Amino acid sequence: MNPRAVQVVFVHGWNNHPGIWKRLIRQIESPALPCWNFDHSLYNSAPLSEAATMLQDYIGTMRTNSGYSGPIDIVCHSMGTCIARYLLEVLEGNAPDGRVRQLIGIGPPNNGSSLAELFIDPFYGPQVVDQLTGVFVPDDFDPADDVTVQEFRPGSPTMTTLKHAGIRDDIRYRIILGSNTTATPAFFPWFEGKTWDRTPGGGWHMTYDGDGIVSHRDSYLSGASVEILPADPVGFSRAPDQYCHIQLPRTPEVMDRVRGYLDTTPVNPP
After folding, report:
1. Cβ pair 106, 249 in contact under 8 A
2. Which domains does the chain have, with CATH numbers?
3. Hey, which end of the chain has fewer CB within 10 Å, N or C?
4. 3-class DSSP state for residue 73?
């Protein structure tokens, strides 16, 4: 493999930390081009616009400190994708600097999160919060007071702003999703292998087309390529939980796909 010529920036998800990328970074970085791993773990209550501004400042600082002025690839997990999108599509908007080659989102809630809406549902919410406490949400979690939950409700002002901004034609967008291809409860046992999904009519249903936390409907983004994993259900049967939302950045097949995107994408996307 030739030395990587494009700088990679990692953005972790909600209630997570930069360590989620440790395995992948170990596989791709080089002494000549170490990865940039953005940490917003201490600012989980920050509005999306502030998190995006912090990412913008971080990239600027890293460029200055390293002297690197070339193109970058941004690899994100979960809401980290929306932080990067807000930077690229809203903050930069009509004045892009043209130096982002591609955005790779793993399990992103591009259209808002059905689960965020479910958290504040008076009937389902308390039970779902209880099921996910210690798994995906902290012990003292109160969705009514959580800025991120409120912003990621589908139809919120923040998600509406992101939707209206639209994707950029100078960036290649890629989405990697996990799916319960064999309807196996062990995929995400807290929901018996399924993912909550909010239908266009405002109703609720549970589906195997999701990663336990984010449904495919929440993730799809017009103009972005989509790859749904696992590609081989046989391998999936040995470790289905690897493909749930929480584990995706550390899943070998996901890491293989990310490495492939980083290594084969032209520097100047069509």
Report:
1. yes
2. 7-112+157-182+214-264 (3.40.50.1820)
3. C
4. strand
**Separation in Å, CA 146 to CA 84, 119, 135, 159:** 20, 10, 17, 16
| Confidence category of residue 268, pLDDT binned at 50, 70, 90 | low
CB 250, CB 20: distance < 8 Å: yes
The one-letter code for the residue type at 103 is L
Please report where in the chains the tokens 């292998």 appear, as a residue. 193
Alpha-carbon gap, residue 108 to 113, rounded angstroms: 9
61-to-36, 52, 85, 219, 228 alpha-carbon distances in Å: 11, 14, 19, 30, 35
Least confident of 175-179, 198-202, 205-209: 198-202
Q: What is the DSSP letter of 133?
A: B
pTM over 0.85, yes/no: yes
Angle at 266 between CA 164 and CA 61, to 5 degrees: 65
142 contact partners, CB below 8 Å, separation of at least 6: none
Task: Locate the DSSP E strands across the chain.
Answer: 7-11, 36-38, 72-77, 100-106, 172-178, 195-198, 204-207, 225-229
Q: How far is CA 209 from CA 150, 193, 202, 229, in A?
A: 24, 10, 18, 11
Q: Is 100 helix (H, G, I), strand (E, B) or coil?
A: strand
The strand pair at 100-106 and 172-178 is best described as parallel
Question: Is the separation of the CB atoms in 99 and 63 below 8 Å?
Answer: no
First-last CA distance in the chain: 24
